[in-house]
Design goal:
This protein has 20 helices and 13 strands. With 587 residues, the chain is α/β, with parallel strands linked by helices. The strands form three sheets. A six-stranded parallel beta sheet has the order 8-9-10-11-12-13, with no helix packed on it. A five-stranded antiparallel beta sheet has the order 3-4-2-1-7. Strand 11, helix 19 and strand 12 form a beta-alpha-beta unit. Helix 2 runs antiparallel to helix 3, helix 5 packs parallel to helix 7 and helix 16 packs antiparallel against helix 17.
């Protein structure tokens, strides 16, 4: 009862409990040893079935015992030479029936035991005449107890396939579950998977379900969103429908840029992650795979399964040129002396496109209906974050990342963060990507930042955008040499490893308190860390290793001002051939 203090158990009670626990443990250890001994002797008989069943009824998660049972059943079920068809079928059915009974008891002990569900389907596959209708009823009962038992959902899908039940019939099953419980997220998810099979898109807009189906599903889900707005389930299904209505283009990885970052090092940047094997095919002159290295947050990743957007190629000094296959019809000769680099303007603009993804008129009408529902709800109740999130996502899908949409989006994001502080960082990161693309393509002036980069300007100014990451910039690594990120929220420097061509980096007024050992920018000459959180001289001890060509370091208005001698001693030791100019005060 509430507000009633628990009386501590006496020493005698605790001792009795401990003695009972030890006795059970000893009994289990003896049983386990007996099972393993019988298995090692090849005694896969009725006795080992009996012994393992005693344990698995209470603890069904010991998958080794289920494996032993399967081997024993396979051995016992072998047909004897003098056994009639009738006797064999009777014995076979009895064994399978007993095994199904055991798995049922095991699932009563733990309904989410993967091992027990696996064993159950293994039996069904081997029954001569399995009662699949009864099995579906079992699944229905289990899902009524816990509608999110994904082990049971997996089992049901396998049984449906075994029973050759149509996707249309399963849609009716999902309907029944949703009608009885609109918050059944698993039923909505199952429904979406079935719709992609039964009503695929034929309009040519790239959607995963047909236009009529999309409209019908919105008609089905929007009333639920209206009267049960605080439940995230219906909004999650809305999100799937919205993204299905406005799919991203699926394109093969394209080479965006190829450029020399040193006399013998080439940086390749792709539109999507690509493997070392694929890079090697595009550069047939490089026979040695060791000269192809992935560029990531770590200095270099050599895992052959690694896929990255950015790759570094090391050339022989005697041949500072490389032929790169841009597509099947042409290639590009990259020569260090010519100063020419490959830039795929069209593909880069496509990566940072701010245009709407909604191409279907039917989809557009459905999304406009969702916007109306969201706005009506916000006029009534203003404390549900899912409504704000749905409205934000939908207006972007409908209108693209235009200036007025960004302004409205900023307001919505602040509301969402306030209502759902637990996911504040997630919302910030997602919105950061949108704002970055909009800033890059902003054409309110004569030309956008992206246009300037593509026309040859290698400087990029991204001050005061509340950026926490430069991951959005990785596709531009082959174009940028001077990057200004003053007054943002960046604390992790190793993410800049994807920009080996950087020569100047301004990070003033960012929450940086150290320079990680894994940071490596081989061409950086100027680094500005003014008004950061650097406090101890030891925070800069890795600078010479991280930036081997560094010439100037600015640390104005940091804690290092009071440790100037220590900083000089670390960065400019007596045995150093080059001196780093350190600025402790603004000029």
């Amino acid at each position: 009862m509430h507000n009633v203090k628990k009386t501590p158990a006496s020493e005698a009670i605790n001792a009795a409990y401990e003695a009972k626990r030890k006795a059970k443990l000893q009994q289990f250890l003896e049983t386990r040893e007996l099972i393993f001994q019988k298995r090692s002797r090849g005694e896969l008989d009725e006795e080992i079935l009996r012994i393992t069943s005693e344990v698995l009824e209470k603890n069904p998660d010991i998958y080794t015992f289920w494996n032993i049972r399967r081997n024993a059943l396979i051995s016992i079920i072998q047909r004897a030479e003098d056994e009639t068809d009738e006797d064999y079928e009777k014995r076979h059915n009895e064994l399978m029936k007993n095994e199904l009974g055991l798995t049922r008891k095991a699932l009563m002990a733990n309904p989410k035991s993967y091992s027990a569900w696996f064993q159950r389907f293994w039996v069904l596959e081997r029954e001569i005449s399995p009662d699949l209708k009864q099995e579906l009823e079992l699944c229905k009962t289990a899902l009524a107890v816990d509608c999110r038992n994904f082990h049971c959902w997996d089992h049901r899908r396998l049984v449906v396939k075994l029973a050759e039940i149509s996707a249309e019939d399963e849609l009716e099953f999902s309907n029944a579950l949703i009608q009885s419980n609109p918050s059944n997220y698993s039923a909505w998810h199952y429904r979406g998977m079935l719709l992609m099979k039964t009503q695929p898109d034929v309009s040519g807009h790239g959607m995963v379900i047909s236009e009529d189906c999309l409209a019908g599903e919105f008609e089905k889900i929007l009333p639920i969103c209206s009267y049960n707005a605080e439940d995230q389930t219906s909004w999650t299904y809305c999100r799937w429908l919205s993204e299905s209505a406005c799919p991203k283009e699926k394109n093969e990885p394209e080479l965006l840029t190829a450029s020399f970052v040193s006399p013998t090092d080439v940086l390749l940047v792709f539109s999507s992650p690509i493997s070392k094997k694929e890079v090697s095919k595009l550069c047939p002159g490089l026979l040695d795979d060791s000269k192809i290295k992935a560029i990531s947050f770590a200095k270099c990743l050599h895992d052959k399964y690694q896929k990255c957007n950015n790759w570094s190629l090391s050339l022989d000094p005697s041949q500072p040129s490389i032929s790169i296959i841009v597509d099947k019809d042409k290639d590009f000769l990259l020569e260090y002396d010519s100063g020419k680099s490959f830039v795929n303007d069209y593909a880069i603009k496509k990566v940072y496109s701010t245009e709407t993804r909604c191409k279907s008129p039917v989809a557009k009408e459905a999304l406009e209906g969702l916007v109306r529902v969201c706005e009506e709800l916000l006029n009534i109740d203003n404390d549900i974050p899912w409504t704000y999130a749905a409205l934000l996502r939908t207006i972007i899908l409908l209108n693209g990342e235009k200036d007025d949409i960004i302004t409205r989006g900023d307001e919505l994001v602040q509301k969402i963060k306030a209502l759902d502080p637990q996911r504040e960082n997630l919302y910030h990161e997602l919105w950061e990507r949108v704002r970055f693309s909009a800033k890059l393509r902003d054409s309110s002036s004569d030309s956008s930042l992206l246009d300037n980069l593509l026309s040859g300007d290698r400087r990029l100014d991204l001050r005061s955008l509340s950026l926490t990451s430069v991951d959005h910039l990785k596709h531009l690594a082959g174009l940028i040499t001077d990057l200004d990120l003053q007054n943002n929220l960046i604390s992790d420097l190793k993410q800049f490893n994807v920009f080996p061509g950087l020569k100047s980096l301004v990070l003033n007024e960012n929450p940086i308190d150290k320079i990680e050992e894994s940071v490596y920018l081989p061409n950086l000459k100027f680094l500005s860390l003014g008004r950061t959180n650097l406090k101890e001289a030891s925070a800069v001890k890795t600078i010479r290793g991280s930036f081997p060509r560094i010439e100037r370091l600015l640390v104005c208005e940091t804690g290092l001002i009071d440790q100037q001698e220590e900083v000089h001693a670390i960065l400019n030791p007596n045995d150093s051939n080059s001196k780093i100019r350190i600025f402790f005060y603004y000029m």
